Amino acid sequence: MDTCPSLSACLNLLGTVVPAEDNGEGSNSEKLAALLARFGEPAKQELLKRAVGPHAGWRNVAGAVLSDWPSWSTVDVPKLREALQTQPGSWVARPLGRIGTIEAIEALVEDLPKSDSGNQTDFALAQLGDKAVPYLLPLFDNEKTARLATGVLASMKPLPTSFVPSWVRLATDPHEPTKRRIAALRAIASIGYKTETQSTDLKYLIRDPDLSIRNQAVSTLKALRDPTVAVDVARSCHPKAERFDSLALDSLLCLRDVATFGDAARGGGEQLLQFLHSESNTERAYGITVLGVIGYSQAIPEIQAELDSGDWRIVYAAIRSLGWLGATGAAPSIEKIASKHWLPEVRQEAAVVAAALRSTRSLERPTKDQLLSTNTENRYDPFGQILEFVREGKRCTTNQWEWNGHRFAFSKEAFQRSSTLRFRDGSLVGTDHGEWGGELAWLPGDGQPTVLMRDNIRTLMYAKEGALAISGLGHLGIRYGYAVKVSKTDGAWTLSETARFPAEPDQSTRLGEDLFAVRSSGRVFVFTSKGGIQGEASCP
To answer: Which residues are paired to 430 by β-bridges?
Structure first.
């Protein structure tokens, strides 16, 4: 390409590596644009022709090269528009964004609903910033296109907050058509809580005669984290997770929203106390956390009682919340945890909180900015810290471990997707299909199989009065693990969680009649079916 003598020779050479299909690849486009630009306008026109041609691979490559073409003018808009219509969301959106005329912006806005979000059209419109905003407003008329326009506005840097006052006037004007008022409310919501000081008049719309205006006003006020709706948001959250649900996603999303209202949500604290009585330990940890974040001090006695939980997540959440609430009376109990808890990270948090309480000061609660951070590694997210509480252990090259005089090693057998324990009247069968889930089932010798729990079963081991099921998952950002005692009483199986690990278990072994060890995140924890985790083994 550096030495090809003519445009046709260069395109023929490039054609030898153009794939048959559009693979979305755009690497080297800047280099190719610089090399072909030496042939001037004819090269650009030839690429525009190929960008609308019948060859899918060439359409993509030509568009990618054009996205880095050095010069454009308004006369190119019709052909670029045609190329974008041929391939919605494709590379040619970028030059339209660089041209930035009314016609170019209209072509981009026209294309936005035709393709999935997260493409070149989104990018080009977001880069245009304030210039594109007036042309995006009509897309907020429709719920589907509003989601796409929301993504664009939310990606603009800086956010187009200068438009908010005019949108507030539009939304609150009873003489404007309902669709335009709703569009304005959705546009305000797309920018989020940064506009709350400019949007105080919107709270009156929750009493608007038009039901659709009232409903959208409530949604917008929620997006703005307006105190007017904080208690309603808190009261909309209800525990619903099953006992062994380690994510409790519905409650996580709802309580995260409540937390972002901070003190304004405190009036809903009594309603949120129900999470402390959930059969799901995950929801209980979330509930303890949100009560601390919103400063609901009436919950201190119930939260303090959770310090005795056998689930480290609940203990950790309770320690933090008591610190945020300034519960000085809890300091002695937290100090005991700082010296005796089996998990070092919990001991460390307890020591910090106990010291703060002894000095009669509350720990600083997470701020709204911190809670709403879009940083994927948001270290201020108190819920994420419960979900991803993992410190990797040092590698034990000998695979030899020691705990209270017990020396042991883990089997090097390959992991099996299913495990079975046989009893006189049937079999317990556990399956593990990773992110696709698994289950524990009872297959009686005579009768129908029964699913006892739905989660990955890493392994099954015999235990007193029944069995021990080791469960967990490590996939992307999800990491959890726990042990369940499976006992038979009066002919029926009962399940109870006996140990919660910091992350997914990858190996397990029996040390005694009722003593087991599990390796989790490179660390080894010893536990019993009745007494929970006893401590962490060392690698001598």
So the answer is: 419, 440
**Other C-beta atoms within 10 Å of 155: how many?**
16
**Best CA proximity match to 66, nearest among 100, 91, 103:** 91
Burial 94-107 (b: 16+ CB within 10 A, else e): bbbbebbeeebbeb
For strands 478-489 and 492-501, give the pairing. Answer: antiparallel
CA 86 to chain centre: 34
Residue 310, phi then psi, degrees to nearest 5? -85, -5
Using DSSP's 3-state secondary structure scheme, residue 517 falls into strand
Pairing state between β 523-528 and 406-408: unpaired
Domain termination site, one of 172, 200, 228: 228
Domain's final residue, options 332, 357, 387: 387
**Contact residues for 283 (Cβ-Cβ < 8 A; gap 6+):** 239, 241, 245, 248, 251, 275
The rounded distance, in Å, linking the Cα atoms of 461 and 464 is 10
Q: What is the pLDDT of residues 319-355, one digit of tens each?
A: 999 999 999 999 999 999 999 999 999 999 999 999 9
pLDDT for 378 beyond 60: no
* pLDDT level of residue 135 (50, 70, 90 thresholds): very high
Residue 395 covered by a domain: no
User: Please, are residues 177 and 185 in contact by the beta-carbon 8 Å criterion?
Assistant: no
| One-letter amino acid for residue 298 of the chain | Q
Residue 55 buriedness (CB in 10 A; 0-12 / 13-18 / 19+): middle
Mean pLDDT of all residues belonging to the chain? 92
Clarify whether residues 246 and 334 are in a common domain: yes
* 499 bridge partner residues: 483
Question: Cis omega (within 30 of 0) on the bond before 138?
Answer: no
Inter-CA distances, 155 with 123, 299, 489, Å: 8, 39, 57
Query: Does 1 map to a domain?
Result: no
Phi, psi of 173, deg, nearest 5:
-90, 110
Residues 115 and 219 grouped into a single domain = yes
pTM (two decimals): 0.83
Looking at the 3D structure of the chain, how many domains does it have?
3
The sign one gets for the Cα dihedral 202, 203, 205, 211 is positive
Per the document, the length of the chain is 540
Of 309, 314, 233, the residue nearest 275 (C-alpha): 314
Q: Are 254 and 366 in contact (CB under 8 A)?
A: no
What single string gives the DSSP state of each residue in 270-284?
HHHGGGGG-S-HHHH
User: Who's near 59: CB < 8 A, 6+ residues apart?
Assistant: 22, 50, 51, 52, 53, 83, 86, 87, 90
pLDDT digits (tens, 9 = 90+) for 171-219: 999 999 999 999 999 999 998 887 767 778 899 999 999 999 999 999 9
Tell me the one-letter amino acid at 222.
Answer: K
Contacts of 293 (CB under 8 A, 6+ apart): 259, 262, 321, 324, 365, 366, 371, 382
Instruction: Count helices and strands (H / E) in the chain.
Output: 23, 14
The predicted pLDDT at position 488 comes to 87
